[in-house]
Design a protein that fits this description.
Number of domains: 2
Largest sheet: 5 strands, mixed
CATH architecture of the largest domain: 2-Layer Sandwich
Order of helices and strands: EEEHEHEHEEEHHHHHHHEHHEH
Number of helices: 13
Mean pLDDT: 93
CATH topology of the largest domain: Nucleotidyltransferase, domain 5
Distance between the termini: 13 Å
Strand order of the largest sheet: 3-2-1-4-5
Strand content: 15-25%
Length: 281
Amino acid sequence: MKLIADCGSTKIDWAMIQGHQVTARATTTGMNALMLTDEEMASTIERELLPQIDSTAVTEIYYYGAGIIGEEVTASVRRALQRNFPGAGVIEIASDLLAAARAVCGTEPGIACIMGTGSNSCYYDGHAVRDNVSPLGYILGDEGSGAVLGKLLVGDVLKRQLPDEVCRRFDAKFGLSRLDIIQRVYKQPAANRFLASLVPFIGENIDVPEVRQLVLNAFKAFFRRNVASYPQSRELPVNFVGSIAFIYRDILEEAAQAYGMRIGTVIQSPIEGLINYHAEN
């Protein structure tokens, strides 16, 4: 039986499949392999996942996660999984970018992108990630992401670039002073999550032309600074995983058209696509 894990820093979606049938699902606390020891990861899996599934039935594990960088991190995740699933003869550990590519492209070549709290992209040849423009994080890059949309929003509110009515709605909704925002961004941890948490306000005001333009400009920057760097991007579909792409697909389509590109599959979460991929492969 196969166990599939789509791991983020906030949560992990797990699915057990036998053939084409899903036999169990679970959600547990997220883990970033760069920040945890294998002992900590193993304990989390043992405490949260094992009570929900039959671990003795697992023979193959396909684990995709944030922070899977280098052999040392991969080995640490492998040890955590081996401790909890000694019967698993196959353990494959890969990045969240490969998860996105397999989820939206399957075994066909394409451009695969992530657009959630952060953003990323790659050229996928149907088997492996062959080219990747570094996302660089929300300070230097991550164009189109939730964190960057939040950053643009608060910047435009504080610099009075949006209509007065929008600024008043922002103040009424969040009750944040200029100093509050500066402290949350520059002095407190997880500033990217704080900024991304402001994005629902954009959705509530997307009919305001200036707000919609903010999103469109951010998406155009994503295509210009990332996707356009792949020679295949005007021939192959550009596919997306992530809540931002899923919610604002119509604006994403407009941004893609501005660069002569076409949008393919857009899904909110990769787990369903990964289930289909591993059922077939």
